[in-house]
Amino acid sequence: MYNVMVKKSGQYNADLMGEFSNITDAIKLADDLKKKDNTISYTIEEVSGHFDSYGEPIATVVKRG
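and the corresponding structure tokens:
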């Protein structure tokens, strides 16, 4: 599963924009959002379904832009 997180300039936390099973769909959404508003930054994370000792999901960053 891939999560697309978007952070606007001046914003502290990133917003979840979508969850995808296919990486190409996640990249397309992130690129489309970046084209509409180039002041945002995005992160695409792969979530494995495993959790750390605090109960937070373990995610690996795949792409940033």
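(Above: one complete record from the training split.) The CA atoms of residues 3 and 19 lie 5 Å apart.
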